[in-house]
Amino acid sequence: MGPLWLLALIAGLSFFGFVLGHWKSVVLSGKGRDALAARPGYYGAYVLIWTAIPALLILVVLSVARPFLVEHTVRVNLPEQVLANPTQLSLEISGVRQVATGLKLATHEELEDIRIGVVAARSVFARHGLPLGEDVKPYQLIAASALNVVSDGLNTAVDIAVVAALAFGLIFAFVRVKPRLRARNLVESTILAILIGASSVAILTTVGIVLSLLFQALQFFSVVSPINFYFGTVWDPRFAAAGSTESGQFGFLPLFWGTIYISFFAMLVAVPIGLFSAVYMAEYATSKVRSIAKPLIEILAGVPTIVYGFFALTTVGPLIRDFIALPLGLGTSGNNVLTAGLVMGIMIIPYVSSLSDDIITAVPRSLRDGSLALGATRSETMRQVILPAALPGVVGAVLLAVSRAIGETMIVVLAAGVAARASLNPFEEMTTITVKIVNQLTGDLEFTSPQTLVAFALGITLFVITLGLNVLALTIVRKYREQYE
Amino acid sequence: MTEAASRLPVSRLGGPEVRAISRIDIGLRRRYAAERRFRAYGLAAVTIALCFLLALFGSIVGKGYTAFQQTRIAMMVDFDASIIAPDGDRSPAAVLSGNAFRFDDLIAASLQKTLELDPDDEDGLYDGLDLLSKGSAPMLRSMIAKDPSLIGTKRSVDFYATGDVDSFVKGTIRADIPESQRLIKDKHIALIDKLEKDGALHLAFNTGLFTNGASTRPEMAGVGVALVGSLYMMLVVLVLSLPLGVAGSIYLEEFAPKNRWTDLIEVNINNLAAVPSIVYGLLGLAVFINFAHLPRSASLVGGLVLTLTTLPTIIIATRAALKAVPPSIREAGLGVGASKMQTVFHHVLPLAMPGVLTGTIIGLAHALGETAPLLMIGMKAFIVEYPTTPLDPATALPTQIYMWATEPERAFTERTSAAIIVLLAFLLAMNSLAIILRRAFERRW
Hints:
The complex is a heterodimer.
Chain A: H1 3-30, H2 40-77, H3 80-83, H4 86-105, H5 108-116, H6 121-127, H7 138-176, H8 183-199, H9 201-223, H10 226-231, E1 235-236, E2 249-250, H11 253-284, H12 287-302, H13 305-328, H14 337-362, H15 365-373, H16 378-407, H17 410-415, H18 433-441, H19 450-483
Antiparallel strand pairs in A: 1-2
Helix pairs in contact in A: 1-2, 1-7, 2-7, 2-8, 4-7, 9-19, 11-14, 11-16, 12-14, 13-14, 14-16, 15-16, 16-19, 18-19
Chain B: H1 2-7, H2 22-64, E1 69-78, H3 81-84, H4 92-96, H5 102-114, H6 122-131, H7 136-146, E2 154-160, H8 163-170, H9 186-198, E3 201-205, H10 208-211, H11 224-255, H12 260-274, H13 277-291, H14 299-324, H15 327-335, H16 340-369, H17 372-376, H18 397-405, H19 410-441
Antiparallel strand pairs in B: 1-2, 1-3
């Protein structure tokens, strides 16, 4: 049975269990001996939980363990000289997997023919619509048939285990349904456990990000030393031919400079516009203007970044090239730092403005009123009383915006260019960390080559930088909020 | 603003009684000027932001609205049985196999008739064929395979013009630039004019844009397949992130004791909401594809990755909605003897549901536009066929936009903008739905 059938079986039997539990509790209480300790639905749910959860757990555990067991079988059955070459191992294993699929397609007579060597396995598989890249080697056949035996065995084992768990759970819980049973407490504590599990998905995600990135990044650092990576000034990861030892140069600094430079321009656009519009919204705008302009500005945050990227690529880039860069003789490319920075700045305006707006309105009214009562104008109140009081919060908002700019991908992929260079001319092509992650990971992937793995090293660096900025920003904002609460 | 200005004693500044304190006057005037400047800066900032918004939408709509119409060339086609089914076998399988060039012969014959060409005029024929999409012959073939009874009849068929002809007819390729730099030559223009005069060449609503899949030929390319991929992903996201998000937030908001662990989760969720989406893509690549061996480019994997990116948004929205339910509801529930769990599930959650749904829809809208993580897991693929299950190779609307955005042809630029308009229309619809839901069910206590 496939996993879908098993899931359907679990669902069906659980429902059946619910009905049984409900029915039994009603019948027992109907005899009038004891009042039920919980409402009948809870007895149904009690049986349901006992039926479904052990079976589901078994299914999940076995499904997770399965790939390891299968891969282990293949490894055991591969000859020494194949195992000796770890870089080819994953290729070999997927080759064996394909042969195993082919063996399943072939008929009994054909299998017999393949076994005694009358026909080539490759031609048989091709007849069944499975073309292979090269002829099947004898050791692959052995490993593949072992794989099939183990995976068939595992299938049966999973089926039996799940059905056994279902039957046991159903009967056990059904027998235990008695009026005295505190079904509600048991059901509620199970639900609580599920709730706790759901809330720790967030933790699991973070752990998953860190572990998966770190694991691949460490593999990269075993080929390229971290010092060469973080302090290298040349980015030139040649996609070397297979087997070649040359790996190119992976200098992080030009990417970092590009990222910082583009973010700088983005902030140059976003901070003044965002801050001033927040001030205007909080202090001067009538409620009517505010109710129209504020959602309109926030639309800017809801537009997908790919749309900004396209806007930069087809509208802003050519404009800047034709009207500024070319007449001044500073650059010839429509892909440049200024374009990416400007468009990214537009995207970030609402982040700065709405956060700052919240922070400005959170400054206690007494401060404002005091200042106005002393005869200060509104702008003086804003500049000399409210903004200084709100400064930590505003700094936090700006830091959050910087972190968003650094992690932004689609705008720079489309508008910043791919040339890794560190220069001060904003009309030149430059590239960022995120662009290089995308570049290194599109196309054929080999999880053993440094050209692919470098993306994970870049990823974890990006993660650490943005995480640092976020933690800093959130701490500042939180401190600031507490100050006035 | 006028109300505030009129209250200022500016009008009295010149009066005789104020002259005595003229030193203060000067200071005041300067301060009021500063006030006006400051206010003007604010107004300018808001205006600039709104201008950016206008420029963004204006440029996209201006480039893309033409793509919803497409140039077609209507021609009478004689589905000659001796050409299509020379051996008399009219089954779809026989139509699909066999000499593929026989459909080109059909097209050539009807083109000669439409353009009233001399049968020996080969150059004229080839110039005419240049106007038609290279996908015309496959189109005829699948048409006949779908309905074999067409064989032996005569019918008018709307053929697609090539992307360049389409751009020319819509005016994006201009006739006044020198012929050597123009993609459409003078001889083609003559033919186009003739076809237009005969009424054969016309603009029609571009249905292919919504039904076709990826194609190297702009006139045959559409977002249909990408839309299905996006739909599958949204389903996966909805099915996973709504229950997970709601369950997680209920625990954090209603049950969690205040301790280090819950603090950690809290900080974590806030941080996850700000992690760059590309990092989620790397996570998906490493865990779902490299480790769990799920297929690349599958919408299931895309949905899983997007679930992780949207989960923090949904949790934050749900917690806000739960927090907004007043404590008196909980106290009343507990007071009449309900357990804590019953109070939450029977009373608090239903009251918070509008907020939860609004948050979920906004989270989904965000996920729909997400591009970078999908590039990481290989959803940037050339997919022609509709995916039938979430495990089939698929592509998504934003990745389709990304692929088209990097194509150099003018016709693709137009289509990219059109695809963006489609995407924005979906986002607009989802956000409006969220706003309507909030308006309809929102309660203020």
